[in-house]
Design brief:
InterPro entries: 6-PGluconate_DH-like_C_sf, 6DGDH_YqeC, 6PGD_dom2, 6PGDH_C, 6PGDH_NADP-bd, 6PGdom_BS, NAD(P)-bd_dom_sf, Pgluconate_DH. This protein is of the alpha/beta class. Helix content is about 50%, strand content about 10%.
């Protein structure tokens, strides 16, 4: 199958390679001349045979908006656009309408797999009509992991469902990473444990907590014991926040996901105002000692 791919970053670049290895003709566009196959989006549209299918793999938000608007101007009725970035599901309806007004179909696709997707395959969660999903299925089949289709691919529902599923996936990911990280900190704090990395390595087989994330933590500890080369500052790319916001809207309790999101906020504070206030209160009501900042700073 022929595919246009917009965005050749860490994931898009590897997706192009996996699809090409799977026998597809992939023409990629990226603003960086060292990785792009064509100089412009217009040139990409010209290089594809109608009806075209173009996969957008760019950062969510304004960049995705601008890309879809630009594609609407250079594509034709009967073409198909797939948004595979981490767009918020509430944006999908607007993008679908903008394209539908010009006779262009739309699919939203949540993609998981990171830099390992090239060799391991990508977990795919898609939203769209049955006909449009079937049309793009050769691409999905090559990108997904080997094995039964249902173990790595889901047509989650109509437009918006794919990105909603990916949003929840990333919220769960937040909580899992925090739980594994807290476990590591406990192991490292106990003198009885001589090698926290060896413990995490042992958990990789036979235990009920084994997972790909757990194995990646064992790998990271082997490469940098004690994480001496890494700052604790942790960003959040949006999906965890959206998960908590939607949980509030749906009145679904997600304490683990919410706590993991707030833990990321806490990681960015060199000296937490909240904990300063707690220390001051303990001093006020109980006379508990507080650690003072010296006059020299």
């Amino acid at each position: 199958m022929q595919l246009g791919l917009v965005g050749l970053g860490k994931m898009g670049f590897n997706m192009r390679e996996r699809l090409r290895e799977g026998g597809h003709e992939v023409i990629g566009y990226d603003p960086r001349p060292e990785v792009t196959d064509v100089p412009t989006l217009g040139a990409l549209a010209e290089a594809l045979d109608a009806p075209r299918t173009v996969w957008v793999m760019v950062p969510s938000g304004p960049v995705t908006d601008q890309t879809i608007v630009a594609l609407a101007d250079v594509m034709s009725p009967g073409d198909l656009v797939i948004d595979g970035g981490n767009s918020r599901f509430t944006e999908d309806g607007r993008h679908a309408k903008l394209l539908a007004d010009k006779g262009i179909a739309f699919i939203d696709a949540g993609v998981s797999g990171g830099i390992w997707g090239l060799t391991e395959g990508y977990g795919l969660m898609v939203g769209g009509s049955d006909d449009n999903v079937a049309r793009a299925m050769p691409i999905f089949e090559t990108l997904r992991p080997p094995g039964p289709r249902e173990d790595g691919f889901v047509h989650a529902g109509p437009v918006g469902a794919g990105h909603f599923a990916k949003m929840v996936h990333n919220g769960v990911e937040y909580a899992l990473m925090t739980a594994y990280a807290e476990g590591y900190e406990m192991l490292a704090a106990e003198d009885l444990i001589k090698d926290p990395q060896a413990v995490y390595q042992a958990w990789s087989n036979g235990t009920v907590v084994r997972s790909w994330l757990q194995k990646l933590l064992a790998k990271a500890l082997k490469e940098d014991p004690g994480f001496d080369q890494i700052s604790g500052y942790t960003e959040d790319s949006g999906e965890g926040r959206w998960t908590v916001e939607e949980a509030i809207r749906l009145r679904v309790p997600v304490p683990g996901i919410a706590a993991s999101l707030f833990a990321r906020f806490l990681s960015r504070q060199d000296d937490s105002p909240t904990m300063k206030a707690v220390a001051a209160l303990r001093n006020q009501f109980g006379g508990h000692a507080v650690k003072r900042i010296s006059e020299s700073g």
